[in-house]
Structures are given as C-alpha cells and as structure tokens.
Amino acid sequence: MQNEPAHNKVRVEARGVALAYGKTQVLRDINLMVEPGEFFALLGPSGSGKSTLLRLIAGFNIAQAGSILIDGRDITAVPPWQRDVGMVFQSYALWPHMTVAQNVAFGLEERRLSRDEVKRRTQAALDLVGLGEFAARRPNQLSGGQQQRVALARTIAIEPKVLLLDEPLSNLDARLRVRMRHELTLLQKKLGITTIFVTHDQEEALTTSDRIAVMDQGVIQQVGTPTQLYDSPANRFVAEFVGTINLLAGSIESETAATAMFMSPDLGRFSLPRSGDMPEHGPVQLLFRPHAARVRTAPDGDDALWIPGTLVTREFLGESVRYGVETRAGMLIADRPHLSGEPDYAPGQAVHLGISASQLRVLKT
Amino acid sequence: MGHQFRPASVIAYLLFALGALFVLPLQAQQVSIITSFPKELTDIYKKAFEAKNPGTTVEILNKGTSAGVSYVRETAVGNRPDVFWASAPDAFEVLSKDGLLVKFDPGIPGIPAKIGAYPINDPQGYYRGQALAGYGIMWNTRYMKANKLPEPREWADLIKPVYFSHVASSSPSRSGTTHLTVETILQGEGWSKGWMQILQIAGNSAAITERSFGVPDGVSNGQYGIGLVIDFFGLAAKNSGFPVEFIYPGVTAIVPANIGLINGAKNAELGKKFITYSLSEEGQMLLLDPKISRLPVSPKTYAKAPAGYPNPYSGKIKSKVNFDSDLSEARYYVVSAMFDQTITFRHKELVTATKAIHEATAKLAAKPNAQGQKLLADARELVFTPVVDETKVKDKDFLAVFRATKRDAETSKRVTALEEHWSSEAKKNYAKAMDLARQAAALAR
Amino acid sequence: MNSRYAPVPTAVAIAIAIFLMAFLIVPVLSVVYIAFSNADGSLTLAHFMSFFDLTLMRESFWNSLYVALMTVLMASLIALPLAYFTVRFEFRGAILIQTLGVLPLIMPPFVGAAAMQLLFGRSGSLNLLLSEWFGFGIPFMEGLNGVIFVESLHYFPFILLNLTMALNNIDGAMEEAAQNLGASGLRLFRRVVFPLAMPGYVAGASLVFLKVYDDLGTPLVLNVTNMLAPQAYLRITSIGLEDPIGYVICFIMVAFSLAAMWLSVQVMRGKDYATLQRGGNSLSKRRLTPMHAMLAYGWTVLVLLLVLSPHLGILLLSLAKVWSYSVLPDAYTLAHYVTVFQDSSRMMANTLLYCGLAALIDVVLGAAIAYLILRTTLPGRQALDFMATAALTIPGVVLGIGYLRLFKGVEMGGAVLTSSWVLIMIAYAVRRLPYALRSCMAVLQQMHVSLEEAAENLGAGKLRTIRRIVLPLMIGGILAGFVTSFITATVELSATILLVNAERLAPMSYGIYLYMQSIAGRGPGAALGVIAVVIVALGTYASHRFIASRAVQIEMKG
User: Rounded distance, CA B50 to CA A269, Å?
Assistant: First the structure.
C-alpha cells in the first residue's frame, strides 16, 4: 500500500468513443480527459451511458469507434485482465465461495506474487478499510457496508493505475451512504489514484468529486467542477439534474452593449446585465435556484425582478423552508434559510418573489 | 400443448379413459394364460382363438418360467390365470407337485404317448405336451464366413480353440431352455464329462447372456457367431430371413413343451377350451407359422409342413438322450447355482484361463515339451473339473440344503457358504490355471 | 403462517404423509424386513453378515461404486464443455444442444444399450468398418467399461441441464470482477466460475450417481452381472422371492443411495449461491476465435453424434427387414410400424393413462408439499420433503417387490390390487415425485410472499389466494414438473416388469421390452421405441415453448 500520494498517477482519456447495441446508440462521440489523481464523476440518469463508458474503460464493453488511452497508451485492444484498472461493482461481486481474505488476495495471486507478499498486502488492504478482523469471514456474514469495504479493499490491493467505482454506494442505506462517501474521498486523497466514479445521485457527485461529467442519452452534456455545474449549467438538462431550478420562458432583445431586454408574455419586460454567452436576440429561458429568490409581502428594492403570486405550499426541510408560489409564470419555488431571522409565511398569503439580476442565468432554448 | 393449458379438460379425458378401462374387460369372456413364450407366438394363438370364439378375449401374462411358477403360487385361489403354457417340463413337475394344476384330458386322438423314451403327456395327466422341442446349435453364416470358421456339428466341436470368443450361451438360472440344454449335455455325457464340456464351451463364449433370448438374438444380428439354442429360436430366425443355420447335434433330447390347466383358475371352462384348441389340428397347424417354427406333437401335421421342416417322428433327429426330468428337477438348484458361481459370475476369469490354455496348446503342438504337457494337463484339470463331484450331487442331504427355505438364517448361511466356496474356488483355480498354462507355453519356446 | 392452529394444512399434510407411508416407506421397509428376518419372522443379522462373506458381493459392491463414479466423471467431461460453450460464448445451436441434450433421457436405458450394441458392439457397424479398413476393433461395449460408456451418454444431460442453469444464474459481475483483477481463461473458470456453479454441478452429479448406481437395464443388456443391481435382480427373480441375500442387496443399495444423497446435501450446505440479483446481468457471451470455434464445434458434433447414435440405431432397426453382421440393414420396410399400430395401440393408451395420472398426482402432491414447506410453519413439514425426495434413492425393483409383498391379496373394487394397473400408476407417481416436487419448490421459492399478502389484504381467503394467485403464478413450474414426471415415467421399466400382470395392462416401456424378445427380429420393439421417443420429444418441445412463452409474458408484466 502506498501511503504517500502515488507516484504513478495516470491520465485517462476517451477519444471519439461511440458504441451501439443494434440500433440503440448508447454512446456518441465521447471525448473526455480525466487528469492524473483526479476524483472524477460520471453523473447521469439511468440509461445515459455512464456505466457503459465505465465498463468500456475496464474493458468489458468494446467500442465500435474511438479509443481509450491510459497514460497516453491506447488500451482499446487490451483485454480486461491485462488493463490494471481496478473496478468496484455495484453489486460488489464478492465471491461467496471464498472468505474475505481469499477475495482480497485473489488479484494478488493472479499477479503471481509470493505467498508472503500476498498475505502482507491482503492484510494491509483490509486494515486500510478497517476490516482487518474480518479476514476469515464469508461475504454473506458481513453487513452491506462491510461488503462494500471488502470490495474496495479487493480492488485497491492490486494497486491499480485507475480506480473505477460503479455506483458503489447505491446499495447502502442513506446514513451509511453519507459516511462511506466521506471515507471514500479520504481514501482516494490518501492513495491519490485516478478515480472514476459512476453515480446517478447528484448530491453524491457534487460532494465527492473534483470534476464531473454530466451525461444524457449517450452524450456528455457538460464537464466541470461541482461549482461550475451548479452555477453555470450549460443547458436545461444539466441545470435540472444538478439541483432544483425555476424557469421563466420568454425572449431577449438587445438593448445596449451592457444590458439586454427580457420579454415575458406573463411578466412583462425586464432589463438584464449582459453576460458572455447571452444571445443577441431570440427565445430564451431564465433560470434561478430556489435559494436565490427572496420572499416578501411587497417588493423591497428595484435591483431585482419582482413576481407577485400566492403562496400555496410550505415544506420544512430542516436547514431551510421551501415555499411553492403560484404565479402568472406558473409554480415557482423559493427557499428561506431556517432561523435566518426573516419572517415565515403560511399558505394562502399573497407574496412577491424577488430575484436579483445577478442570480439569473440565461439558457438558449 | 398449445398456448392454452386447460387442466380441467385433461382431467376429464383421463377420467373417461379410466372409466373405459374398468368397463371394457367386464363385457367379454376372458381366458388368461401365463406363458414364457414370445409375443409373436402368443399373438397368433390369441387372434386365432378369438376369431374362432367370438365374444372371448385371450389375456396373456408374459413371465419367465420360474417367475410364472411363483406368480401362480402367490395368487389367491379363484384369481389365478387359467392356463400355464411353457417349455420347461420341470416347471410343470413343480406345479403339479404343489397341487397347482388340475387333471384335464381334451381327448384328442392321434398324439403318440412317447417321443423316443420320453412321455409326451404327463403320465398322471396334469399337463400335456403341446409342441416338441430339441436343443441344438445355431450360427450366423455371414459371421462364420467373415471370421473363416468351420460349421460345427456337435457340442464337442464348440470346445475347439478355433471357436474361442465366437460362442454365446445363457445361464440355466435365467432360462428354462438353457437349463434343459445343460441338463441334456449332463445326462448325455455324464456329470463330469458333461461339466467339462460345458466349462470348455463357456470358456469359448463371448458372453453368458442374461436371457435365453439374448443368444438367438445375438447370433441373428451377428454379434456372436454360434449359439446354443432351443430349435424354434434357430428355425424361426432362419424362416424370418436372417442369415442363420440350425442343426441338432448327436447328443440332444426331444422334450415336449407343455400346457396345463391351473388349479383355482378364474375361468376353467374357457381354459379347457383353449387347451383343446391348442392341441387340435388347427391349433397344431399354427406352430408351422414361420415366425413360430415349432415342432407339432401331432404327427399328422407334418404332412402339411413345408419341405425340409424337421420331423422328430421321422427318426432323422437322433435323440440319444432319454431325458430324465426327475433327475433334472432334483438337482435343479445345484446345477443352476454351480453354473452361475463358476461360469456366469466368473466368466471374465474363465475366458482368460481358457485363452491361456488355447495358446499353450498351440505352442506345445508346434514344439512339444513333456514338462509343458504336464503343466497344461494340470491347468485343464483345474479349469474344467466341476466344483461338485458326481457322488456329492447324488447325496440327498446335500441336495436338501437347496430345497429348505432360505429365509432361515441357518440355511441361508449354509447356502451362501457353499456359493462363496464355489465362487472363490473357481476364481482361484482359474488364476492358477492361467499361470500354469503360461508356464507351459514358456517351456515350448 | 400466523394462525397457531391450521386445520386445513394439517389435514393435507397428514393425507400426504399417509400416502407416502403406504406407497413408499412401508413397502420399502417390508423389503428391508426380509433382509433381517428368519422364515418364522424372528429378526437376524445373519443374512446381512452372509452378504459380506461372499466375495462376489463385495466385488459387485465395488464394481457398482466404480461404475457410478466413473460415469459421473465421464458424464462431467462430456457435459462441462457443452455447458461452458453454450453459456459463455456466442455459439450457434446452443438451443439445439440443450434440446438434443435431453434426448437420451427420453429413451429407456435398456433400449439405448441394445441400439448401441448394433452400432458399437463387437459386430456393430463401427467395429465392422474398423476391421474392414484397419483390421482391428474397439471393445466399446465390453464389461464394466461398456456400462460406463452407455451410462455416461445416457445420463450426462442431468449434469448438463443443472450446470447450464447454475451457470446462467451467476451474476456476470462475479466474473468481471475476477477479470478485472487479472484472471482469464481456464484459471478464471477454475477459480471463480466453476465454484459458483458448484451447487448445480453437485446436484446433477449426485443424480447421475444415484441413477447409475441403481440402473439395472444397461448392465443386463451388456451381460454384466457382477454389480449390485443385477445381482439383486438375478437373485430375486431366479432363486425366487424367498432369497434373503437379494433383499440384503436391496437394503444396501437403498442405504448407500441415501447416504450418497445425504453427503451431497452436506457438502452443499450453505453454498447455495443464488448470485443473480434482480436486474443483474448473467455472464457475458463472447465471440470464439476461429481456433476455439473449431474445437468447440468439433466436440459438440462428436458428442451429438454419440448421443444420437442410440436413436439412429433404433430408427434403423425399426425400418430394417434384416440387419445381421452388416454395417447397415439389408433392406427396409415399414411393416414393423404397421404391426405396432395394429397390435399395440392399447399400450400407447396405457402409457398415456398411467403416466398422465402419475404426473398429475405428482404435481398435486408436489405443489401441496412445496406450499406446506415454504408457506406454513407446520411442525414436521420437512419430513414430507425428505420422504418424497428419498424416493429418488429407491430402486424400482425394490419398490416393485415391496408392493407385491405388501399388497398381495388386497382387493379394491372387486379386483385384486396387485393385478390391476393402479399399482403401476402409483409406483410411477412415487418414483417421479421428486422431480415434480423440485420444480414446484423452485417456482414457489422465487415467488415473493408479498404477492399473496396483497391478495389476502384485499380480502381473499387462503384457499382463494392459492387458487387465484399462487396456482396461476406456479403454472410454469407445475407444468415443467408434470412434463418431467411424465416423460421419465414413460421410460420406466424396472418396477413395471414386476408389476405388469397382463398384456392388456402393459404400458409402452413393457411392450418395447416384450417385443425386443422376438425371434423374428426386434423391429416392432424398435418401432414402438421410436414412437415413444417421438411422443416424448414432442411433449418436451411443446412444454418448453409453453414455459418460454409464459416466462416472456411474466417478464413483460413484471
């Protein structure tokens, strides 16, 4: 086990990868660069192609076009057992006919290491995941979290160049999931292995990863840091998938070099500061996150867009209170931090929602 | 089965079929016959009898002879089948001694009292000869030609080295007919010489088949070259188009195959009718059917037989042996058990020893050696001498051991001890004989 | 489930227990009793000791063991590659293999052995060709090795079917994980795939062991007598029903079979890896390299030829006028089929009746026992399972003799029970019950109990729930059980020979046996055999189709 950051950090690259099962296109022209030592997440709904991409890197699927490179070397034609990428399976795939120690030792034995070496590294890997005492047990005598750790220990014992995690936390209960998430990030930072993590849970991806690729329908929609994805989603899919959003439909017309005019059939006209990728004119959607909306009984400033409406639902989420407000532009959602000192509202009240122009993102439709 | 599985309709069908089975047999008069004869024989009689007696059905119970005897014995009076019909006269001896038969005389004229010295009908009248059977040798002409084998004429021919592994026979414990063949040889040649011949033939055999039928079948399809069979097996196979021949050797016995009315039968009247029919001119004619090819007991019938059909009344078949069925019956179990313990179950060892003896004989013939001849003679002595000698087999106490019920621990112990003795003795002798024969062969070098 | 006292299940359980006691346990015990008693009924161990004093018996014991173990080995060598090819690779004709793999099971072993004599025997087609071309022959069918040869080809499907099913149930991730860690090829198979399929393999192998250990027909046809089953049969049928050593052999066979079954259960305890999770993938199939494809197809074709050879032999025989010492028959005819249809339609009807009723009893009992075991908490319900399954270890001869002794003179509806067809049918039902029971258990195990709870929650009583929810969902398994019981019953001979007391009552298997004893050639027997194989093959195919179509329906609904 390497306890200092690994010296053999590698880059993983996908170039123009495409894959289809019959007529179903599963991956289309995937180009991706995962930097050495990075904790990289593939995020997307089921059927988005993220697991297929991961299995492609492991060598279990074969692409019809494109190539996979590890450390600059094309491994497209290398069979799974020679790739030296470790994978943790969603079902853990622990072999029930072997003990925990035998499971962990398997990959080391396949590498024809000496018996002492196998023993030492098996124990080290189990100690690393805190299961040193469980070596003689059978997988079915362990809890879900313990099984997950064994699966992890089995993979990192071979010191792979790349660590692939296929929804590793999805079979755990909510509380354990959060704990394992932390352990996983800590371990990854400690080992420094380039890690690719497949998940459909945006919170999991946002909290653990250095960078995320959001996938849908076999296409990478956006790659970026968690903050970039959250604050500047490239499209509506990314916006909706990474957190809760409100959308306002309308069109935009140029006003000056610094400002643009947004026109909505429901809300009228509103002037916005221009930002980089804002179109000259044409139909757009304005997007804002619920926490960006202020809830007031009346507009209390003119720096913002004020939308009148009736509060219809109130949900207490613990850290915040979430209001649903029926407006002319449809149902909009606003969050108020709990115990922030702002007043609370009850369903039935007439309110105004205020959104600062700086919090509004413009999405091309 | 389709896409719609409707259990209800299946059940309805089954219930209907079930009902039909119960109802049908009750409508007709039924005669049931227990027999060891093959299906084509019984089918021909069944059809003919049913055609002649409308409203009557013939029910066949096909059982091996000894299984048939115990079946009759274990069935309650009134529920027993009506007619017992089989080859082996000793089975009828057992049946009549146990009171399982009733006297019945169909009163058909023209059937002689004796064939050779053997009475055709039971002198006491419990059963009657229905056909005649002699024992002989059957061979496959294609097999003989392919393996360049001369045609055998006598039992004694079959012990020659040239026939090694080309012969087949069954076991007397398995088939009544084989038992008769073995007894014929024993009675014709005498106990010691007879066993010697039997052991030598068995040593030349490729197999000891489980059923007597295995022999003619194996010869017919060419698996074996030569078989020891009852005449109709050979004749029927030949008449059905198989490339086989059959001859009666000099030492043979013509013995009747019998038919008798069972005591405690369900339908005795119909049973009598069937027996009468089987002995009538019409019933005797059926025996000439190529598929049956049996020898009728009625001398008249031969007049209508095809040319070349063997006729035991013509004196052409030399029946030197006057078969003594009392003797045969008395030592039945001893002969059967001896055969099985020293031949059937030790066949592999017997064949190996025989082969070694044949090889040594050939080598010594080429290069004579006195010491070798002596060793070879010892080897022969070891292999071809019966484990029970002639005086012992006449000992009433000895024979009685095999008659007592084996359910008792004491008897069972004595019998199994004897069997163990024979079996291990045979095994030991065969192994030793093989050694001696090899030494003899080595001396010839 | 939740009620402490359940009168209906208790009554059903008692009824089943009585049936099994009357037609399985007591008859077998009555046979065992003779092995341990004197003529006056007093108990003794003398017969038992005599058995061990007989060299021949010890030899037979070891021969039977040797043949059974070697057959398991040979059958494994045949079945393993076939199962592996079909599950692991994109392999054309995988369905063909599985269908044809079933074919040997639907032919009575003694018919198969007789047919193989014609092709592989000392003057069989193959040896005639060999001696004509090369001047030597190969003794395929001689002695113990002949028995092993025939039995391996006959029983390897048990291993093939169980192993294929087990391999198909392995979660593909199990294998991928091993590949990911560096294992491939044979090492991967040996270390991960095969151990995971082990329960299926052991189930199949132990079935083969039991079957071969008990088989009577094959050694008899090949004239091999120094084995336990032939010795028991020869003793009881030639020395007569009174020979106690025959019964001792029966007892030893039953005890040994039970011990073998118990051992296989012990070995597999806690190793039932139902590893395929919901939504999991099965093993991925991959393309064969041309070299491997050649080997795979070569092996498959060779095995198929061997497997089909008895069928081919029997077909030729059924069409042959005369077939004697020649590679192929001299001339062909349809006369044998005419004979069979004229004379023996009764036998076909009997087979349908007995086997149909027996299979019906089997699925009723099987479904009831499965339900009692998996869905109730009745005390002692496991005993029912054990009793029913133990039927697997009872040789047909033993059951037949037990019936004859126990029901001698018993009358039912004016007819003597031992001379009616009812006992034949019940013997079939008892002997084939384990198959139907396994099927029903498997399907009920897979059915989640919440489906029934939902019905009860919506107001359906237990019986209505069973009728409207449980039975419809079990129908696939029930049908599979029905078919397995039915087809294996059609080829049953050992108990049949003992229990058939009139030709009118004979089923086809007995008819084949009888016709096979004909001097005028075995043509009609072969023709009847061909008809039996065709009927059973069609039934199997239809039920596969039915089960497959149902499986698709349920999957689409689910």
Answer: 111
- Write down the ipTM of this complex: 0.77
Does residue C180 share a domain with residue C62?
yes
Residue closest to B214 by CA, chosen among C309, C509, C516, C115: C516
Are residues A202 and A223 both part of a single domain?
yes
pLDDT in tens, chain C (558 residues): 444 567 888 899 999 999 999 999 999 998 888 888 887 778 888 888 888 888 888 889 999 999 999 999 999 998 888 888 777 777 776 666 766 677 777 777 778 888 888 888 888 888 888 887 887 778 888 889 999 998 998 888 888 888 887 887 788 888 888 888 888 878 888 888 888 888 888 888 988 998 898 888 788 888 888 899 888 888 776 655 567 888 888 899 889 888 888 888 887 776 666 544 444 566 667 777 788 788 888 888 888 888 888 888 889 989 988 888 888 888 888 888 988 888 788 888 899 899 999 999 999 999 999 999 888 888 888 889 888 988 888 888 788 888 888 887 676 665 667 667 889 999 999 999 998 998 888 888 877 777 887 778 777 778 888 888 888 888 878 888 888 888 888 888 878 888 887 778 889 888 888 887 777 668 888 898 888 888 777 877 777 677 666 655 554 433
Residues of C in contact with B217 (CB under 8 A): 517, 519, 522
Test mutation, A75, A90, A92, A110, chain C, max C CBs within 10 A: A110
- Which H or E run contains C57? helix C55-88
Verify that A77 and A217 share a domain, yes or no.
Answer: yes
The alpha helices in C447-502, defined as continuous H runs, are: 449-457, 462-465, 471-490, 494-499
If asked whether residues C323 and C434 sit together in one domain, one would say no
Counting the structural domains of chain A, the total is 2
User: What pTM was estimated for this model as a whole?
Assistant: 0.80
The minimum CA-CA distance between A61 and chain C, rounded to whole Å, is 10
Query: What CATH number corresponds to the domain at position C166?
Result: 1.10.3720.10
Chains that touch A (3 or more CB pairs under 8 A): C
Question: A130 CB contacts (<8 Å, ≥6 apart)?
Answer: A149
| Chain A residues in contact with chain C using a Cβ-Cβ cutoff of 8 Å | 58-60, 79-83, 85-87, 89-91, 93, 95-98, 106-107, 110-111, 151, 154-155, 158
Q: Assess whether C393 and C326 both reside in one domain.
A: no
| C291 and C345 both lie in a single domain | no
Compute CA distances C233 → A274, C215, C229, C496, whole Å: 101, 11, 6, 13
Q: Do C461 and C357 fall within a single domain?
A: yes
Amino acid at B47: K
Q: Give the structural domain span for C3.
A: 1-41+334-558
CB C46 within 8 Å of CB B412: yes
Residue in chain A lying closest to C174 (CA)? A93
Nearest to C517 among B213, B221, B336 (CB): B213
**Domain stop point among C270, C301, C330:** C330
Question: How far is it, in rounded angstroms, from Cα A59 to Cα B176?
Answer: 73
Identify whether residues C37 and C51 lie together within a single domain: no
Q: Which residues of C5-41 are buried (b: 16+ CB within 10 A; e: fewer)?
A: ebeebeebbeebbebbeebbbebbebbbbbbbbbbee
Same domain, C292 and C343: no
Q: How far is C323 from chain B (nearest CA, A)?
A: 6
Whether B220 and C47 lie within 8 Å, measured CB to CB: no
Q: Do C54 and C21 lie in a common domain?
A: no
Interface of B with C in 141-200 (CB under 8 A): 142-143, 146, 173-174
Element (H, E) at A53: helix A50-58
